[in-house]
Amino acid sequence: MKFSYSLVMVIFIAITSCTLDKTDYEAEINTVVPEYYEFKEAASLNSGAYHISIEALNGTFYKGYNEVHITVTNTQTNEEQNGADITFLPILTNESGDASSCPHKYNMAYDAENGYYKGYVVFTDVSSSTNTWKLYLGITNNNQVTTVNKDITVAEQANKNLNMTTFTGNDGAQYVIALVAPQKPSVSENELVAGIYKYTEPDSPAGTFPDETQFSYEEVAGYTLKLDPRMPEPSMGNHTSPNNQDLTQHDDGLYYGVVNYTMTGNWTLNFILVNQNGFIVKGTTVPTTFTPGVDGVKSELYIDILF
What we know:
Radius of gyration: 23 Å
Mean pLDDT: 91
Distance between the termini: 40 Å
Number of strands: 22
């Protein structure tokens, strides 16, 4: 009888704490999840006979994953160029003058149905007085090459459901994982989409700047991103949820899985990244122990979200 009473009290305290904590951050939850579904012009530039328009969601480049649409118009004929080859290279320069890049689609693919060149860029840092971003574009049409560049601004991503992380794997390589969807999860099973990228070490000295071989990233192919979502708040006991599915790669290069959010609040997506040979690139198993009153243990590879 004494044991049953103690158990009831523990459950009551956990539930009460959960309710109080939810009330504390309910206002934040209701304001931090902007949703953008309209592509608008984020940058434009002119070079010779070309006008180039670059569109992104909400007309803004954000830290994290950005789908990019580019249209190229011949200003002399007012016709859109659909047979050109378009290259796209983002460069970050820090206060010391060192240049680096981020995951991106270098050779843009033409989308005939929608009439634009389509690609992506995963900005790994925001613009600041010490970190500046510039886009370098190349247009090859009828064997004529035009190059142009443009300073851009990268803003902080306010939607924590689109967070990202960078890390060094156990293989010594540099990786980036960026959440792509959902923008606004529901209390249910949600399709979880992420991009996984790896920096390609150059195998030759740098050529004329910007030499794309020095700034190359590849979409990681054939890996598995094992998923263990938890609520790490002390009141939540680091509990998980059922019916989650690990992320695997689809034909578009992105990774798809299922995350089951059983309530709104702070969640941690704990990951273990495993390559096609079963080698653990990064990540650790999270204990299954229910731990009310203390912060939940996280994998060494994780992304926090909030909705």
